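Weekly puzzle thread! Below is a chain. First person to post its structure in token form gets bragging rights.
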Amino acid sequence: MEETGSAYGKERFGLSSNALKIIAIIAMTIDHVAWMGIDEYVQAEVPLQILLHCIGRLTAPIMFFFAAEGYHYTHNYWKYLGRIALLAVVSHFAFCFSAQPSFNPFENQLFNATSIAWPLMWGLILLKVWDLDKPAPWVKVMITISACALTITSDWSCAAPLAILAVGRSRGNFHKQMLWLMAIVTLYAVAFFIFNNQIYGMVHMACWFTVPLLYLYNGQRGRLKWLGRFFYWYYPAHMALIGVLLRILPFGK
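Winning reply:
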């Protein structure tokens, strides 16, 4: 899959998708390692961890953005969707192994019952649905609502498929993409603040720092062709490793 800069108007200057994905990988690792030994934020006593989680907020918007980009560039949608579906299955077990007491999502807490890969898959499904001439618009709306219901208890909840849909449908208009993306992220942060944890809800607002990074995207993939898949499969691999460390280190849960 060869990417070009035509949609973004920057043929040479800027960051390739590989560079942005490496930033996302580093930020994600920092974020998840910072959770080790901490159950939840009960008060602002962990400024270093909060800073590390703010860095980690760079990851999700980059994942949403490139899920939509992948949909645009893929030559085989169903093969691409199949890979993400497989990723969702594998990531569920890795996610639960590191962050939840049970592999059964119905036995875990209401939110974060499964990984972000599940709503990523539904984001791709919604992009396909809305690109079709049929079904009727009201049917597409009902499918979108159903996707939100099916992903609401996952990591990043229904914000993930909605963000992917908004970014993909607004492709070619960066400002519109970012307005939609940050509006959805902000609503998610507000919901997290009200219904889950106030400190972590505010931390989610650090996602806004992703905008200038994505602005530098030059539409190029970069030299490392394998990094695209590595970007996604690193997620369950490092979550599984964190799960192992949590069980053998003194501060493990």
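Puzzle host: Confirmed. Bonus trivia for everyone else. DSSP finds eleven helices and no strands in the chain.
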